[in-house]
Amino acid sequence: MLLQEMRTDVLRYAQRMYKAGLTVGVSGNVSAIDRESNTIAITPSGMDYDELTPEDITLIDLEGQVVDGTRRPSSEKMLHIKIYQSRPDVNAVFHTHSTYATALAAMGEPIPVILAEVAAIAGGPIPVAPYARFGTPEFGDVAVAAMGDKPAALLQNHGVVCAGKDLQKAFLIAVDTEEAAKIYMFSLMAGKRAIRLNDEEIPVLHEIYATRYGQNPLKP
Ligand SMILES: [Zn+2]
């Protein structure tokens, strides 16, 4: 099987996404790219996450053509392709329908910087891409434009897209985005205006996260 390790990893993270409750039923999709061959491993269209095997993860090229695999690739492959084409720093993409973030997407409401975590991962609010029909190239274009250099965007009337250097980083962005959306929604439901972090603090937290958080090597 071509790119067996990458397909196995995509499968593992797709199942983690599902088990974490970031998507329900057969919605959502996950991919990773091999930059040397410009080959993308992506979850198949409309299959039960619990029943997937590495062979079900389809390999496609940057035109969306199937390179290897017997399954039809995710119907939202153009979203993934557009992100890989415009973001050389990104090697993994998650598209979820996580509940709280999708509720904000349905309201066209970005996630403001009300938590240190949002400042750290995104360096600013998590934006909302305007509505576009799923499965179309425009759906990818509006997501890319809204994301800019950020790791996530909400997709109006639809869901969420998250990206990262690898599957683990992109998965954690999806988890953190949903958590931040949940807390913001609770603050809205409490009828109070959550306090925004001040503008000087946001880039400092973003820089700390990018360079000194977790097991990244310490910068001198
Ligand atoms: Zn979707």
From TrEMBL:
- Report domain Class II aldolase/adducin N-terminal positions: 8-185
Q: Which InterPro entries match?
A: Aldolase_class_II_sugar_metab, Aldolase_II/adducin_N, Aldolase_II/adducin_N_sf
GO BP: pentose catabolic process
Q: Which GO terms describe its cellular component?
A: cytosol
* Stored Gene3D superfamilies: Class II aldolase/adducin N-terminal domain
Q: So which domain of life are we looking at? A: Bacteria
Q: Name one GO molecular function term.
A: aldehyde-lyase activity
Keywords of the record, alphabetical order, are:
Lyase, Metal-binding
Mind telling me what this protein is named?
A: Class II aldolase/adducin family protein
Q: What is the lineage of its organism?
A: Bacteria, Bacillati, Bacillota, Bacilli, Bacillales
